[in-house]
Amino acid sequence: MDGTIADTDLLLVLSWVELYRLYAPKKKPHLEDILFFSGPPIRESLKKEFPHLSIEESFSSFCKISSSFYEQYLTSYPYCFMTLKEAKKRGYFLAVHTNKQHDLALKALHLLHMDNLFDAVIGGGDVSPKPNPEGIYRLLEQFSLKKEEVLYIGDTEYDAETAKNVGVSFVLCSWGSRRKKKDIAAEHFLTSYENFFDKLGL
Asked: What are the Cα distances from residue 193, in Å, to 61, 155, 168, 189, 199?
């Protein structure tokens, strides 16, 4: 979701800045590091940055703070909505598989007017976090799909590892300001959703 459907970079930064203000005011984080926190499971990042807090306290604060920024700062990427609508028209099953908490994922889809475009949403707490393949296997079973029928779209090495752990084709979204490993393997690389189906030969 983050970095592929929803552009959450600004609200993510604002959320972490507020967390540092509340719980680690002397810490001077780097912007690049904050943007990277969107990839790993959020609890891991919170535990690393605020070891003096219980994980439940920091996690609860993060969810509350970040949720407050959604309505003002959440946007989708150019041509994303159009591409999703065309995919539905062509009969594709669409699913979200994210480490973001399920309720926040649903809130994001609602604010982006994408509620009715996805056939399934698997979020944090529903399954083991990526790169664990549990979520993808659940979707394969739910839609009676074979691995070769699946296209997994992501923007981090965690997504690439998830796809690899299942054995499905991976598309890397290379836009955005988030730090990425330079050697992420993918069958396709996207710089925009414009002409998505032509670019992927679909």
From this structure: 34, 13, 20, 11, 9
List, as one string, the DSSP characters of 130-174: TTSTHHHHHHHHHTT--GGG-EEEESSHHHHHHHHHHT-EEEEE-
How far is the C-alpha of 97 from the C-alpha of 170, rounded, in Å? 13
29-43, 47-61, 94-108, 126-140, range with the lowest pLDDT? 29-43
The model's pLDDT over 59-86, given as tens digits with 9 standing for 90+, comes to: 999 999 999 999 999 999 999 999 999 9
Evaluated on CA atoms 71, 74, 80, 84, the torsion sign reads negative
pTM for the predicted model, two decimal places: 0.86
